[in-house]
Amino acid sequence: MKSKSKIWLVVVSLLYLLFFNCSMDLGIDPVKPPPQPETTVFPHVEYKMLPPAGKLPYPHHDPEFTELQYLELNRTLWIINNFAQYQGSGTKESLYFHDGLDIVLENGTKIFAVDSGYVRYIFDGGPSYTTVVIEDANTSDYAWMYTHVYYLNVKVGDFVSQGTHIADVNFDGLGHIHFGRAFLAEDGAWDNMYDWHYVQPDDYFIYTDNQAPVIEQPFYYFVNNSDEQFHRANPTLISGDVDIVIGMRERGEYAHSKDSQFGDRLCVSRIEYEISGDSIETIHKKSFDFGKIILKARPEVGFQDYERVSTVFKYYETIHPDGPPNWDKVISYYVITNCDGSGEFGQIDPVAKNFCWRTNETNPPGERRFPNGTYTIKVTAYDFKGNFATAWEKVVVEN
Question: Which of 26-35, 37-46, 83-92, 310-319 comes out lowest in average pLDDT?
Fold first, then answer.
């Protein structure tokens, strides 16, 4: 019996060794991870000319630029669309907030990483709509988005140093790069656009701007949360719950073509307003502050979201039924009363459309807060650099 047991033990041992040797020979290894594409670590890049401390280079700032080329880049900078700007293609359903900076550049212009980081995602939208997402090396969950680029020089997983050539501009139309700043939703993923939260990128860069925004007059007055407009007169008579709508645009040295002067249609940065009258203390309110807004797509509508856009802007064709003659010097119409007066409106809530000027409001004793009579509406619009414009007009409350 002992002899048979020894023989059986030897047979089992040989089978054990044979199995594992065969497994290795056949390449069967259940714990071996699948092969990963090799990542590239792009080396440190030296800029010949860097912007001042605390600012980043623009994405088309070639590290090899001389001082003259750097000055020319800043002189010819042209941003045709900016952050949170009113956008659409002619219907209410197509409206959306523009979520970055559109920097006009010729197709083929090289684009460089504005900061060091990791390539987290590349959306292949074809030659005109490819996007590269580069997460900051030092600020996790924040990234720069480069859209309308092609001929990529990087891939997902690569580490790129500031100044690394990542791609070239390519767009079928007016050549430009759509350039945005976003942070990631909690437990979100960079390969899911619905997890991206866009914020204003202006503070990272240098702008030359000595021109104040433009405020259009006369103002517009609508019945709250409707397209019913009070007849414009001098002065306009209003009553009940009122939306104040102001036409404005931002301009500046960077906001138009240096050759044709086309442009100057950007979104202002923040808005304040006052309501004053002989029988009331002046009421000062902060309206929209676009430095605090957070933009994100919703799965059910994407970025085309009239419900939220109409909280901030009046649909253009409500005021101009024939639409704009062209997109030069276009005015956007802000519903400045659709805010609680604090300027804090981060994630845009359509419920804010219920805010308005309640001209028939009463105080606890039951007295009218705004007795019938003449009032002055004063509006101040600021751009990102602090330039501002002020306009005012009279209106008559007749409840």
Answer: 26-35
Over the Cα atoms of the chain, what is R_g? Answer: 29
CA distances for 351 relative to 18, 307, 312, 347, angstroms: 72, 10, 11, 11
Burial 355-385 (b: 16+ CB within 10 A, else e): bbbebeeeeeeeeeebeeeebebebbbbbbb
Residue identified by tokens 């009070």 is 230
Length reported for the chain? 399
With H, G, I as helix, E, B as strand and everything else as coil, classify residue 355. Answer: coil
| Neighbouring-strand partners of residue 275 | 283, 377
| Cα 163-166-171 angle, rounded to 5 deg | 125
* Contact of 375 with 368, CB cutoff 8 Å: no
Q: Are strands 270-277 and 280-289 parallel, antiparallel or unpaired?
A: antiparallel
- Write the CB contacts of 293 (distance below 8 Å, at least 6 apart in sequence): 83, 84, 97, 199, 200, 345, 346, 348
Identify the residue whose tokens are 């080396």: 43
Torsion sign (Cα): 302, 91, 265, 175: positive
* 372/369 Cα distance (integer angstroms): 10
Task: Decide: 81 and 97 in contact? Cβ < 8 Å.
Answer: no
342 DSSP assignment: B
> What ranges make up the beta strands (E) of 126-279?
131-136, 142-147, 149-150, 159-160, 165-169, 176-184, 196-199, 214-215, 220-223, 236-238, 241-249, 270-277
Residue 275: CB atoms within 10 Å: 20
pLDDT per position as a tens digit, 295-314? 999 898 888 899 999 999 99
The span from the CA of 245 to the CA of 336, in Å, is 6
